[in-house]
Design brief:
By secondary structure, the chain is of the alpha/beta class. Helices cover about 25% and strands about 20% of the residues. It has helices at about 45-55, 80-85, 95-105, 180-190, 215-225, 235-245, 255-260; strands spanning about 1-10, 15-20, 25-30, 35, 45, 60-65, 90, 120, 125-130, 135-140, 150, 155, 195-200, 215. Helix 4 (about 180-190) packs across helix 6 (about 235-245).
Length: about 290
């Protein structure tokens, strides 16, 4: 049986999960978070260290560190957790395409041999195992072209594909995003059993409720404000496109992509011993 332990990063509104097989005591971490303060440049491992402590106190062996996609709103702690354990990092094989898309923007080289950055590259239908428990990969592109969800027992970890029903769905206006694709991905999720628990990667709750990180497929299908059983694909594309046009650039977009698209590794130190995140400037018409 799969147990899910929730960890929440309040700064970025991110839900990160330790899941494990209760019998074999084998575990995976899904969507780990590395703290980054954009004002000071300070990096810390507070949440990841809490997860390591949880693993230790429960005698769990960490097998996998899984990201659902290349996050644009927080840094992944996958490389840090790999350094501290014997676990393997897992991400969609589509990560290479996304890296190529942003390589020129950050003046960072494309890494053709992705095995140098990630241990396991997965695609739709692939399986990982925690003891006897299967972790099934479902491709759920739309928010990003490399998005996947992970199904474990009666649980599905959807990354940014879906949010809580009163918040809706992920934006699709990043390069490689596609609202029609996202609609079809959500249909696949909504075809699962009504009682399947959906675990989201973020919650941005309205003022009248506390943070929640899980709902059910049945509840999402009936009540999601952006995509529900009463809405067709054209309805969703219209709602999603209108909403995306109002959204600001995520605060951690540039730091996140420079790290998450290159193996969750921090940039190499320069000759003065410091590491730097690049912020591309838009100067057309100014200089």
């Amino acid at each position: 049986m799969i147990h899910v332990e929730t960890f929440y990063d309040e700064t970025t509104g991110t839900g990160s999960y330790v899941i494990h097989d209760k019998s074999a005591l084998r575990a995976a971490i899904i969507d780990p978070v590395l703290h980054f303060d954009v004002s000071s440049g300070a990096v810390s491992t507070t949440l990841a260290d809490k997860q390591l402590a949880y693993l230790h106190s429960n005698n769990l062996h960490l097998d996998y560190i899984c990201d659902t996609h290349a996050h644009a709103d927080h840094l992944s702690a996958a490389a840090y957790l790999k350094q501290k354990t014997t676990a393997q990092t897992v991400i969609s094989q589509g990560i290479g395409e996304v890296q190529q898309r942003f390589s020129a923007q950050f003046n960072k080289p494309v890494v053709n041999d992705l095995s140098a950055l990630y241990d396991i590259l997965v695609k739709d239908g692939d399986s990982l195992y925690l003891g006897d428990e299967r972790l099934l990969v479902m491709a759920t592109p739309g928010h990003t072209s490399d998005s996947v969800s992970y199904i474990a027992g009666n649980n599905i970890f959807v990354g940014d594909t879906l949010f809580m029903p009163d918040v809706g769905t992920a934006r699709c206006d990043f390069p490689g995003g596609d609202a029609a694709q996202l609609y079809r991905s959500i249909l696949r999720i909504h075809e699962l059993d009504d009682n399947t628990v959906i675990w989201v990667c973020h919650d941005y709750p309205p003022d009248n409720r506390p943070v929640k990180l899980h709902t059910t497929v049945g509840n999402s299908r009936r009540k999601n404000i952006h995509v529900n059983q009463n809405m067709n694909e054209n309805d969703f594309i219209r709602v999603r496109t209108r909403r995306d046009a109002t959204l600001a650039t995520p605060k951690l977009l540039y730091p996140s992509l420079q790290v998450n698209l290159w193996g969750a590794l921090l940039p190499e130190a320069e000759d003065n011993g410091n590491r730097y995140i690049k912020i591309p400037l838009t100067t057309k018409g100014v200089f």
